[in-house]
């Protein structure tokens, strides 16, 4: 049996692992991100305490199981331990490895410890060799150590067998594609002391529900199961980033066109409300895409404040885009249904800004306040809302509600326009503007609704490769859709843009013509040629040229 001190320490560890991970551990990790890694390191160090002088020893608790052996020069055999409980967990060190450690008759103590709940408390940090796949912990945590006469041994070949868990909440919610096990160990030095999983020095071989790991060093080991293999495709990432760049350029072009055509197209209150909402939709999507593109180069982690900020602003601006679409739909509904109740710019503009920006700001801030302390705000592989614990619903639920409301408003508006008697409705220029708003909403609402409907499906459930590519295409090219359907297909905008371009080209051409035309020469005296040194005599009455002498005599005959 281990010492009484060690038994007491392990009993405390087992009780601490029963603490509510959301209420206590998440709060502690929010204050000290490395608390779980430090806790594991303390457990690893305690296993190196003095053990019995010979023989085998073990100690079992609800969340901790310790097994070990003491080998002398005359009692060397293979070290092989099988732990109780599920899933399967085995550790094996060959006799040849132990023989190299036994020197001068000293004993060698090998200790292994299975930890049942600690793996779930460690942050989801993955070293560079693991790539950007999404992982879930697929087995228990096994910590092994060797103590010899020279102190702790850090490098020795150990073979382990990990049985796979039947299912985890994360895997059941997020698994898509083939699950691939990966043998890993916890490296306390990664991520600025916070720790992370690494696969260096380990070989993996999987047989059905068991994974065999062979590693060349001693520390805490486990098995990670990779999921979402479809989303890790190089071409999917390339298509997404290319589309976002195209969307950003399209939105910049769209805002530039609105700037050039603004004075020509805004001629009444309805057109002002229309283009004000379109400009804000384009601006919100531009900012969201910019943050989204920048976040692809950040390390996903709750401790990476820039990643947290990128997630917040991406969430906020995407929501703002949909809320401005809602504002546009309500304005269309009001102008067609409440014909005799006109809206004033001074009162509507502040209200529209409040709905368009303040409402999404409140939702985005609430998502951070609720899920960030629980370390459930950010995905493990991207700076975006976590799709496994409810954070993603702070985006998907408002979007779904807005899309449904917009569809209902569009239905009412279409029925209103199809009525035989519409004499009480708006006339002329205002009616054309309202129809333009209707056309844009009829196209953009289904596109954006379908886009994020697919997005929620791919983030929260098992989905096909086709759905991933459809979401990538639709999401990436939203800015192009706004440029085409909200700007270029608007005849008033096209005419105003062409008029502005023609005016600018005419002005440039006139300026160039003036600059290329030689300036007229101003003669110093009447009838004197501008070619200096070659005066030309003026013509006489009959067209004959006067001689210089005659000219001089005439000048001389003038009275003084």
Automatic annotation (TrEMBL):
Q: Which UniProt keywords apply?
A: Disulfide bond, Glycoprotein, Membrane, Receptor, Signal, Transmembrane, Transmembrane helix
Does this entry carry the keyword Signal?
Answer: yes
- In which broad location class does this protein mainly occur, judging by the first location in its UniProt entry? membrane
- Tell me which Gene Ontology terms the entry assigns under biological process: adenylate cyclase-activating G protein-coupled receptor signaling pathway; cell surface receptor signaling pathway
* PROSITE patterns per record: G_PROTEIN_RECEP_F2_2, G_PROTEIN_RECEP_F2_4, GAIN_B
Question: Disordered: where is this region?
Answer: 539-560
Q: Which residues form a coiled coil?
A: none
The residue ranges crossing the membrane are 238-260, 272-292, 312-339, 351-372, 392-414, 434-457, 469-489
Gene Ontology MF terms in the entry: G protein-coupled receptor activity
> Per the record's keyword annotation, is Zinc included, yes or no?
no
Look up the domain of life of the source. Eukaryota
The protein, known as: Adhesion G protein-coupled receptor F3
The organism's lineage is: Eukaryota, Metazoa, Chordata, Craniata, Vertebrata
Q: Which gene encodes it?
A: ADGRF3
